[in-house]
Amino acid sequence: MPDPIEISPLEIEGLSDYHCHCDYSHDAVGTIEEYCEVGLMRGLAEICFTTHYDVNPRGLVGDTMMRVDGVSRPADDAALARYVDDVRKAHDQFFPRGLTVVLGIEFGWYRDCEEEAARIRRKFGFDYMLAGVHDIADICFCCTGRYETCFSRYSLENMVELYYRDVISAARSGLFNTIAHLDYYKKYGEKFYGPAIHEAHRPFLADVFSALIESGTAIEVNTAARRRGFDSYYPRNEIINAARRAGVDIAHIGSDAHAPDQVGYDFDLAYVFAPNTAGGGDDD
Ligand SMILES: [Zn+2]
Ligand SMILES: [Zn+2]
Questions:
Q1: Is 156 part of any domain?
Q2: Where in the sequence is the domain holding 84, given as residue range(s)?
Q3: Which end of the chain is more exposed for a tag (fewer CB within 10 A), N or C?
Q4: How many domains is the chain partitioned into structurally?
Q5: Considering every ligand atom, which ligand is closest to the CA of 54?
């Protein structure tokens, strides 16, 4: 648990953080309760847990793991059931203290995963499903050990085209509320391909926005990019603003917290991009 003195409240009260991991995610630390305590200290009204659930239908990936009681184990229904139970219990515990706890999941998108996404949505009744595109042709582009293998197969234009093709498929599936961290390929892609990566989305945006609008799928403003040293978010401001002009729903801000002290990170700035996330209704 972070030192309470280091957690400062946000200037804007009543915001919602709709992208938080917890120690059910193999790459995160901190219990659900610890994230909720920080949410209260920040003055959030809502916190949505979105642990990773990655099941490659071709069974090719080794990181399809969750963590339960501190032990890594395969992501399966038994692990999900424990997670769901703990998030629901946290809501019962924290709602009387002023924090709504929402049950979400970050579903790792792979080609042909629609059936599994539909199945777990039906079975567990998630309030919020994020689709996270983390792989291109089954190779992770956002893990330190693998991004070079992934990127070395493609020109910048090919890579970005394949990424947005997956985003479009995820949106058109109609199974997700929101696409997580659009333009996430820049996380390591900037280093690999250079600054041209920040303009590589332009030929594809019109098709991406059509798929989002027609399927009623939103995008998020993900502040983790700022933790990584970028000067804007996932996606960058240019894309957020173009999305708004096109009529894409910008549903939530999310910290993508992988540790409790990252809850609500940079929300005092980010909330202007998604003002509908402020508590108390419209901002006019
Ligand atoms: Zn993600
Ligand atoms: Zn995430």
A1: yes
A2: 13-277
A3: C
A4: 1
A5: 1
Distance 23 CA to ligand 2 centre (A): 12
Distance from the alpha carbon of residue 106 to the mean position of ligand 1, in angstroms: 7
Separation in Å, CA 134 to CA 84, 147, 199, 232, 249:
23, 10, 20, 20, 22
Which pLDDT does position 281 carry in this prediction?
Answer: 40
Residue 184 lies in a domain: yes
Would residue 7 count as lying in a domain? no
Residue 4 confidence class, pLDDT cut points 50, 70, 90: low
Provide the mean pLDDT of the chain: 93
Q: Look at residue 141 and tell me if it is in a domain.
A: yes
> What's the rounded Cα separation, in Å, for the pair 272 and 40?
21
CATH of the domain at 178: 3.20.20.140
**The residue type at 273:** F
Ligand that lies nearest to the alpha carbon of residue 180, given by its number in the listed order: 1
> Which among 109, 75, 73, 143 has a CA at the least distance from the CA of 217?
109
Pairing of strands 139-140, 178-179: unpaired
